[in-house]
Specification:
Largest sheet: 5 strands, parallel
Strand order of the largest sheet: 9-10-11-13-15
Distance between the termini: 56 Å
Strand content: 5-15%
Length: 475
């Protein structure tokens, strides 16, 4: 066992209690806008006070709903095998969803994505050891607009076995996406017991759950499919400029989501997540790589953990337009801070330009970052005393410890051994191999991965089922 798991915290318990109390007060006195008719009918049946679409949620109802939220979620892969669990401080990564551009690693140009780009991206994700979930990462334009939601899920599951973070932009898409998920399971009960997908749902800041996102919460809850809140307070624009004010707003928006989900179906799984940002006063942008954005994320996650709910955040991404040094340090800082915060699902590897762009090169580099981060949070192991003295006694015999039994026994456990993406060669060897940058090495690695066979090929019968569903709904 490690001596201690490295952690970071930015809120003390007193402030968590204050934030929670104020968030409840906001929902009870200022209310939340809810546009969805199914949700408002449920609220009206309970006699919750409202002024048109603004509902005032009482604190006792919030507490009741919090009590029925599951404290952990286990995700299964396409074939129904247990894959990852979101609980406690267990940390997992996915590439993030719904970028609208791809950075072409061959032309080095940012362009609109096509379905073939998404297929390539999914095939790479399948082979990356430390990216444990996939996502509907890229919106592509070569299918009809009304098919885009479910078609991304169809292609993702056709090309990668890992569980998936997805979502809908059309209310009509959910039933088709559910049908696709059911094709991977034996029954509705089997899908509920072995969830394959997480559905993102984004409230609109400040304090509004739209018709679409609320419907997603209700539909997912009825099928016991996990919903992941992606609350997006923008500090200084659609949320208070103070970091603690944005954390409080995020808490209120997520608490409203908790109530919607639990009233739709008690015990339905959900994830306390978000993609907040600070507003850049100079450029009018939403920097995801800003340190203050990361601080808001950490505060949000601490509130989720305070409530014992699985957590999510968008971190390990960059606002840079290419996989350069800025992309490296923003992704590295975000991944490390997120892992130290114990975030259960971190979205962002591969993403550039304010979440708008996916890059296979960055994704491959980020996989190495995540590997290092996972090693870091394993902490330092205590193998028993003495720690060094007995080993050092043996140094006198050979004047080296490379061949020492302890080195041979522990070096693979103690050391993170990176892939060739990370340059640890001598300068001479680096020159002999072409003096390549990390980006060039990642591009070369992408070519190799894309030529590899699938890690876990899809069953032919399942592929035929998915193809049949796609051919039924494509226009």
């Amino acid at each position: 066992m490690p001596i201690i798991r490295p952690k970071i915290r930015i809120l003390d318990d007193d402030h968590k209690k204050l934030i929670l109390s104020e968030a409840k007060s906001i929902l009870e006195t200022q209310g939340v806008f809810i546009e969805n008719r199914q949700a408002t009918e449920i609220f009206d049946q309970l006699g919750i006070n409202h002024e048109e679409e603004r509902y005032f949620i009482p604190s006792d109802l919030i507490d009741e709903c919090l009590n029925s939220v599951p404290h952990q979620i286990t995700l299964f892969d396409r074939e129904g095998e247990e894959h990852i669990t979101l609980k406690d401080d267990q940390v997992h990564f996915d590439p993030g969803s719904a970028a609208i551009f791809i950075l072409d690693e061959n032309t080095r140009e940012i362009r609109e994505g096509q379905s073939k780009d998404f297929i390539r991206f999914s095939k790479v994700v399948e082979q990356l050891k430390y990216i444990e979930a996939q996502s509907t990462a890229l919106i592509y334009q070569d299918v009809p607009k009304d098919a885009q939601d479910w078609h991304r899920l169809y292609l993702a599951l056709s090309n990668c076995y890992k569980p998936i973070v997805t979502g809908t932009f059309r209310k009509e898409s959910f039933s088709i996406m559910r049908e696709i998920l059911l094709a991977c399971r034996t029954s509705e009960d089997d899908l509920a017991r072995k969830p394959l997908a997480i559905f993102d749902a984004c409230p609109s800041p400040p304090l509004k759950w739209s018709d679409l996102t609320t419907q997603s919460l209700i539909d997912a809850a009825k099928s016991m499919i996990p919903s992941e809140f992606v609350s997006m307070p923008l500090a200084g624009a659609s949320a208070p400029i103070t970091l603690i004010g944005s954390i409080t707003q995020h808490c209120a928006e997520c608490l409203a989501g908790v109530v919607i989900v639990q009233l739709a179906r008690q015990g339905a799984p959900l994830i306390w997540g978000g993609s907040p940002a600070v507003f850049d006063m100079k450029h009018g942008t939403t920097p995801m790589g800003a340190i203050e954005t990361m601080m808001i994320n950490l505060g949000d996650i601490e509130m989720g953990k305070f409530l014992k709910i699985p957590t999510h955040a968008y971190m390990s991404l960059s606002d840079s337009k290419m996989p350069d040094s800025q992309a490296g340090f923003e992704a590295g800082m975000g991944a490390l801070l997120g892992a130290l915060g114990g975030i259960n699902m971190i979205s962002g590897p591969g993403m550039l330009d304010f979440e708008s762009t996916q890059s296979i090169e960055k994704l491959i580099i980020d996989n190495e970052i995540v590997g290092m981060v996972k090693r870091f949070i394993e902490g330092i192991e205590d193998y028993g005393t003495p720690f060094a003295s007995e080993i050092l006694k043996d140094y006198e015999d050979k004047e080296e410890l490379l061949s020492h039994p302890s080195t041979l026994k522990y070096f693979r456990k103690e050391l993170f051994l990176p892939s060739p993406i990370i340059d640890r060669m001598t300068r001479h060897s680096w020159r002999e191999q072409g003096s390549k940058s990390a980006r060039k090495r990642a591009k070369d690695e992408a070519s190799k991965l894309l030529n590899n066979p699938s890690v876990k090929p899809i069953n032919e019968s399942l592929q035929n089922q998915l193809n049949k569903i796609a051919s039924t709904y494509i226009k």
